[in-house]
Every structure is written in C-alpha cells, then in structure tokens.
C-alpha cells in the first residue's frame, strides 16, 4: 500500500496516508453526526458534524499510535521499519524483514493490541471525567465512542488469524513449539483464510437480512483477510524455496553505473545507457552508491529542462532502496524488494554497487528451482 500523501516523520518513521482514508473519515463522521441527534436533539447540524469529524480524526490518530508501536518495537528487535501508511481498512507498518525469533515476533505483534487497549482505557476515563465535570454531552458521547471503537480494534486484531496481530501471535507460538517458521505461517494463514470466509458469510447474511451497509463492510474486510492471508502464505512458500540461495545468484552483476552529475538529457541520449536497462545505479565521484535512477523517471523530466537537471535530482535515494550484500540470503530480501519504489535492490560491497536484483530476477531463480530437473546443490 503506497501513500498518496506523506505527512512527515514521527520517531524517524515516515507517515503517509492513502486517499481512501478520506472515505473512512467521512463515513465515520457521517455515522456519528447521524447518531448524535438521537441522544442530544435540538443542536445545530454543524455541531454534530464538527464533533463527528473530530472523533473520526482522533480515531485515525489511534490507528497511527497502534502502527507506530509495531514499528518502534520492531526496531528494538532488529527489524528495520521505515514507513507507516494509513488507509481505508486501518494502517500498515512496512517492515523490511521478518522477525528473527519467535520471541521478537511475539513482542512486535503483541504491542499493537495493547496500545489500542490502553487507548480504550484512556478515552473511557476521559469520558467519565468529562461526565463528572458536566462537560457537553456530545463530548462525552464522542469520548465513549472512541473508547469503544479502540476496544473493538484491540479485540478484533487479537483474533488468531493472519494478517491480524493475533495471527502473528499464533505464528510466534507455533514457531516456538515446532521450530519451523514455515509451518507456523501455514497455520496462521490458514486461520486467516478461515476467518475471512466466515466474515464474508456473516456479511452476506446481514446484507440479505436488511443490514446492507454493515454486511457490505464485513464482507469487504473478510475478502481483504482472505487475499492478505493467501499472499502471505505464498510468500512463506517462496522463502522456503529460496532458502540457502545467496543474492549473488540472482543479481545482474557489474551494472552500468551513472554519475550523479550527469544530466538527464545525456543519460537518455548516451549510447552506453540506451536500450540496455530500465534502471541504473547512481554513484558519486568515488564510485559509492547514491541511489537508483529509472528511465521512466528520467523521461518524465520536460525536454526543455533535461539539459540542466542532474540525474541525482530525479533518482530514488539509496536510503529508500534495499541494499543487500552479495552473500546475503535472497529469501530475506523478498519483503523489502516488494516494497521498494522501483521493485529493485542495489547489491553493495563496501558502499559500491556490484549488482542489481529485480523481482523478475527472483522469478527467474524461483522458476529454475521449481522445475522438476533442477538441482539445489552445485549452484
């Protein structure tokens, strides 16, 4: 899930929002604005909407706190986390690798529901304090709603089914018991698909029973769980297949590099680069990697400015690209490669590019390993 808008950084982690967040904020605000008049009639419509929008935005901040807790605990356990994206069905913390141990998985997954539970308690206490202070009824109602929805979020995310936090907890337990992260993933993703189909069935039942909107959303969440669990299971099988394969076996070695000071016009016109590849490492005068430039990004520069625009100004910075070593495990690179802006990784040795790995390179290796006559030894 790529963000439509980046809001900035929080604790060194980029925070972005997808355009679909606007949909959920409007739906929540509209639902609250329609609910408030039943308990507190004869108020101006703008007041209902103002409190509804404020409550919806505060809930999104609760989701952000949930996701930032995952990212921070992941960092403390050796897993790089650099971006959080809020979207229609919640939030996603982008982790660059898998948890190294079952204990780390348990800590990373478990902190999210705990933060949501803590938010539910805080909002509940705030609602009680507001009521005791005889604050406005709408404020009390909004705080009580925030307490309830955070409690619901904590409980739902604790269900033992991937990709929910509870699924991660289940995976950690099975991993600890069996010693096999693959078997643990199979169990967690199987539970995720089962829960997804259960939600789809319940959603259709509610929809045909007259609760069309609620049933529709329940079915959508179920379909999302099915798709996410299926994808996670496929990634686990892929990691198992690639076990023991180093990055150097998949990379394109000795890539053609581009000086960062080269202009976009020269890049597109120089025969050394034309038609050879669709992306090139960008280096400084000492040969150290600065980033990666794609032909598409370079071609997007207007012709009248291409002669004055350096390649370094249109490249993807090296900080946003996976940078494995040639002897690193290819399987460990998969999550970061999928999330990479260009779906490529720069293979570095002492800061200098020695290869490029793309998703098509991984597919090529996977196809070879999956063929009946392939030999895993002697690579």
From TrEMBL:
Residues 251-309, 315-375 form the CBS domain. It is found in: Cell membrane. GO terms for molecular function: metal ion binding; metallopeptidase activity. This is Zinc metalloprotease. It is a multi-pass membrane protein. It comes from Streptomyces aidingensis. The chain crosses the membrane at residues 12-34, 46-66, 106-130, 142-162, 182-200, 206-229. CDD domains: S2P-M50_SpoIVFB_CBS. InterPro entries: CBS_dom (IPR000644), CBS_dom_sf (IPR046342), Peptidase_M50 (IPR008915), UCP006404_Pept_M50_CBS (IPR016483). Pfam families: CBS, Peptidase_M50. GO terms for cellular component: plasma membrane. Binds 1 zinc ion per subunit.
């Amino acid at each position: 899930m790529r963000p439509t808008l980046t809001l900035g950084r929080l604790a060194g982690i980029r925070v972005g929002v997808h355009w679909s967040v606007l949909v959920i904020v409007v739906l929540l605000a509209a639902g609250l604005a329609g609910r408030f008049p039943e308990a507190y009639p004869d108020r101006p419509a703008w007041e209902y909407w103002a409190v509804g929008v404020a409550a919806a935005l505060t809930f999104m901040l609760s989701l952000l706190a949930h996701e930032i807790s995952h990212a921070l605990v992941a960092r403390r356990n050796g897993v790089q986390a650099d971006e959080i994206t809020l979207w229609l069905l919640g939030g996603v913390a982008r982790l660059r690798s898998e948890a190294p141990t079952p204990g780390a998985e348990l800590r990373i997954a478990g902190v999210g529901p705990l933060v949501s539970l803590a938010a539910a308690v805080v909002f509940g206490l705030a609602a009680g304090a507001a009521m005791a202070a005889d604050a406005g009824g709408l404020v009390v109602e909004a705080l009580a709603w925030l307490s309830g929805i955070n409690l619901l979020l904590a409980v739902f995310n604790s269900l033992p089914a991937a990709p929910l936090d509870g699924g991660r907890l289940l995976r950690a337990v099975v991993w600890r018991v069996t010693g096999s992260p693959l078997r643990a993933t199979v169990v967690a993703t199987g539970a995720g698909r089962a829960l997804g189909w259960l939600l789809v069935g319940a959603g259709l039942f509610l929809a045909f029973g007259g609760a069309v909107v609620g049933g529709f959303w329940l079915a959508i969440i179920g379909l999302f769980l099915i798709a996410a669990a299926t994808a996670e299971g496929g990634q686990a099988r892929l990691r198992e297949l690639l076990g023991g394969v180093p990055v150097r076996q998949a990379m394109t070695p000795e890539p053609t590099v581009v000086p960062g000071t080269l202009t976009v016009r020269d890049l597109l016109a120089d025969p050394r680069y034309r038609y050879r590849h669709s992306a090139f490492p960008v280096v400084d005068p000492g040969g150290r990697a600065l980033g990666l430039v794609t032909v598409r990004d370079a071609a997007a520069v207007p012709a009248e400015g291409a002669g004055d625009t350096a390649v370094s100004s249109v490249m993807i910075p090296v900080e946003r690209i996976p940078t494995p070593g040639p002897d690193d495990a290819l399987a460990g690179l998969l999550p970061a490669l999928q999330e990479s802006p260009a779906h490529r990784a720069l293979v570095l040795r002492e800061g200098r590019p020695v290869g490029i790995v793309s998703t098509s390179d991984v597919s090529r290796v996977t196809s070879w390993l999956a063929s009946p006559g392939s030999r895993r030894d002697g690579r």
